[in-house]
TrEMBL record:
Entries under InterPro entries matching the protein: AAA+_ATPase (IPR003593), P-loop_NTPase (IPR027417), Signal_recog_particl_SRP54_hlx (IPR013822), SR_rcpt_FtsY (IPR004390), SRP/SRP_N (IPR036225), SRP54_GTPase_dom (IPR000897), SRP54_N_sf (IPR042101)
GO biological process, one term: SRP-dependent cotranslational protein targeting to membrane
Binding-site list for GTP: 107-114, 189-193, 253-256
SUPFAM superfamilies: Domain of the SRP/SRP receptor G-proteins (SSF47364), P-loop containing nucleoside triphosphate hydrolases (SSF52540)
Top EC group: hydrolase
Catalytic activities: GTP + H2O = GDP + phosphate + H(+)
An annotated GO cellular component: cytoplasm
Organism expressing this protein natively: Desmospora activa DSM 45169
UniProt-listed Enzyme Commission number(s): 3.6.5.4
Domain AAA+ ATPase: 99-279
Keywords on record: Cell membrane, Cytoplasm, GTP-binding, Hydrolase, Membrane, Nucleotide-binding, Receptor
Protein name: Signal recognition particle receptor FtsY
Amino acid sequence: THKFMSGLSKTSSSLVGAMDAVFTRNKIDEELYEELEDILIGADVGVDTTMEIVDRLRQEVKERRIKDPAELKPLMSEILVELLQGDDGETVVNVQEGALTIFLFVGVNGVGKTTTIGKLAHHYKQQGKKVLLAAGDTFRAGAIEQLEVWGERVGVDVIRHQAGSDPAAVMYDAVQAAKARGCDILLCDTAGRLQNKVNLMEELKKVHRVIGREVPDAPHESLLVLDATTGQNAMQQAKMFNDATNLTGIVLTKMDGTAKGGIALAIRRELEVPVKWIGLGEKMDDLQPFDAEQFVHALFG
Ligand code: GDP
């Protein structure tokens, strides 16, 4: 918890201050609601999601006959946590006990996909699981080697082909290797080039199909990696990838480097995809499972 909070300190300090200023106003009026809207929009929550949040707040204020602005703070937290949590257990990562679990990672170049895979490999290895990596980005120069560096660092093997080869073939081999070696977790990297979106989306669909053909119900998680510092751009990316692969979760990286974490709320509401992990730095340990209450607390105090 401490790590989570300090990692998000940049996010918190500015937002918490602004929020507290609203809640110490002397009455609940239009001006207060407008100020709240400005803060949320400024924090990347997005216009539609902000409107919905503030409307719900107004409604609760009316129903509960709240007069004191100080009472808005816990109410606001309640609304935000509910929005982020979604249905019960939804943010829980889907790991099969005693069987091979396959995670597919998608996202544009530079968002932190390789780093996240390395961090998760470390996470599951520490839990005593047997982990394997698949170098599915055969397009970007250096992507395979970068994954191998993480593999060495963490102490897990990487299944790779030559640069430029068919990613679906890499995945096929990786799944066979994972089965043959009795692995618990297979983490699959994919390309993130945006020069030809249609082509990339077709490639991802094919990779998805190949994995699903080899292991029923796989991939068990299709995780979109998003850079929190890119704000509304992340939203556009989320929409694009959600159309191509059925996303089961989001990894929000670089939360240590932004004063705005509200994009998590916008994505959760607009795409109905939960955030499952938060990246808080470049090191192996800088990844935390997403916790809605902690997140809201760190964001808004
Ligand atoms: P990829 O192209 O999506 O595979 O992105 P990389 O994994 O290569 O990451 C791009 C850059 O972002 C690298 O310099 C990483 O060290 C950095 N990075 C990744 N995740 C985080 C994070 O959570 N916080 C910070 N500060 N940097 C990160």
